[in-house]
Design brief:
The chain is mainly beta. Helices cover 14% and strands 41% of the residues.
Length: 447
């Protein structure tokens, strides 16, 4: 009993010490948070009225909120909260769906029941038959490797659907059958897999590897997807043969409704799927489908031709056909009534286009060189603010690491200001970060 009381006392002392250390860290952080502006181009006065709000955290217990007006000499105000226990935080996720070909590149290890894998392969799309064939020729204690043509085992790819949109599927076998009838895609004659099967001395299979044989032109298939209130829209993409699709190649509308069993899940009616807008199959490797700024609007981007089609989703009617003048793949963001496109985001020079939607139509508001925003534009995660005359773009200098960020401001002549806002807390041995904060950065114009 005495030992238990001693242990409890030690734990309480450690807890108190931890809370005290947390408060001390919070107080130090509060006192030390200063922001220094480093001008990249222009004059900070051109961005007068722009406010940058940054939220960051340490160990899910200490949370800072810094409000910093853009200025040559920033005067930030910082609030913080300390919690004695870690807080649960989560970033909001979009509803997305993925349509993809069955998995023919996979590995397994441990206690493997190949017959069970075969029975369940239809659901998850695993293309297990080449493995079963090689396993049948693998003796106990042997490791066997063979290169095989996938077409000798399957005529068509198993088609699967998955994503963050939770689906209510009552009968998985029936679902898989309908999905494959809707999107039949033949397997190319050239597609080969290398299969390795390892059997133990007692004959049990303990390891399997099935990998596609890499060629100059790897086979790929995916789908662009837009999830709307009453339907999901899909546009298959890839370098496979889409000529066998019963409804033709194009934008598919699949009605959706809330599940009667679980409100968080969605029911998709594959029987009512329709092709609402035909697309040239020759574009299947360089075409994308995105939701527009209007709830019932779709955007079709043809990267190879530089054209963008604005489509009425429900009717499948073209609202606008816009020549973007760029054949480089665009990264697309939406903000209020602006459609913001960055061409060549991963290159040294990036072109920025801003399209403003007014009276139901898109008009080009700005086309200019884009100010580089951070060291890894693939994860730029920008935020925007628009006051009708000026567009502000802000992004962290590093991906979720540290707090410092860059801000750039454009008017219709191009970039008029860009500057880095460097937070002193990033210099701490164990700096706070933004990855666990739901809204780490916000830009807004003072009203």
């Amino acid at each position: 009993m005495k030992k238990s009381l001693i242990a409890l006392a030690i734990l309480l002392a450690l807890a108190v010490a931890g809370i005290a250390a947390g408060f001390r860290y919070a107080d130090d952080g509060k006192d030390q948070v200063t922001v220094t502006e480093q001008t990249i181009l222009g004059d900070p006065a051109m961005a007068r009225g722009l406010i940058l709000e940054t939220r960051y955290s340490y160990d899910n217990q200490i949370f800072w909120h810094t409000v910093c007006p853009v200025s040559a000499e920033p005067q930030p105000e910082t609030e913080f909260r300390f919690y004695s226990i870690q807080q649960q935080t989560a970033r909001e996720t979009e509803n997305v769906l993925y349509l993809y070909a069955g998995n023919y590149s996979f590995g397994m290890s441990g206690s493997i029941d190949l017959e069970w894998e075969k029975e369940n392969a239809r659901i998850d799309g695993t293309m297990i038959l080449p493995v079963l064939d090689v396993a049948g020729r693998t003796a106990a204690g042997e490791i066997r490797t063979e290169t095989l043509s996938l077409r000798d085992y399957y005529d068509w790819f198993p088609i699967c659907m998955d994503g963050t949109l939770m689906l209510d599927i009552q009968n998985e076998d029936e679902w898989a059958e309908k999905l494959n009838r809707l999107f039949p895609v033949p397997i190319p004659e050239s597609l080969q897999v290398e299969v390795t099967v390892s059997r133990a001395e007692n004959g049990a299979v303990y390891e399997v590897n099935c990998q596609d044989v890499i060629t100059d032109t790897p086979v790929w298939m995916s789908a662009e997807c837009a999830v709307m209130e009453d339907a999901v829209y899909l546009l298959p993409t890839g370098n496979v043969d889409f000529s066998h699709l019963p409804l033709g190649y194009g934008v598919y509308r699949i009605p959706r409704k809330a599940s009667s069993q679980r409100a968080s899940e969605t029911v998709l009616d594959l029987d009512q799927a329709e092709n609402v807008f035909a697309v040239d199959p020759a574009q299947s490797q360089a075409v994308r489908l995105l939701q527009g700024l209007d709830e019932g609007e779709l955007l079709i981007l043809e990267d190879s031709t530089g054209m963008m089609t604005v489509l009425d989703a429900a009717r499948g009617e073209v609202r606008q056909r816009l020549d973007l003048g760029q054949t480089t793949r665009a990264t697309v963001w939406r903000h209020e009534n602006l459609l913001i496109l960055a061409f060549g985001l991963y290159e040294e020079e990036t072109q920025l286009q801003v399209w403003q939607r007014e009276n139901g139509a898109y008009h080009l508001w700005l086309e200019t060189d884009m100010v580089p925003m951070n060291g890894d534009n693939a994860y730029m995660a920008p935020v925007f603010a628009f006051d009708g005359r000026r567009l502000a773009v802000a992004a962290g200098l590093q991906t979720y690491q540290g707090v410092s960020h860059r801000a750039a401001v454009y008017d219709q002549t191009g970039a008029i200001y860009a500057g880095d806002y460097l937070y002193s807390c990033d210099n701490l041995p164990d700096p706070p970060h933004t990855w666990e904060v739901e809204t780490p950065l916000l830009a807004r114009w003072e009203k």
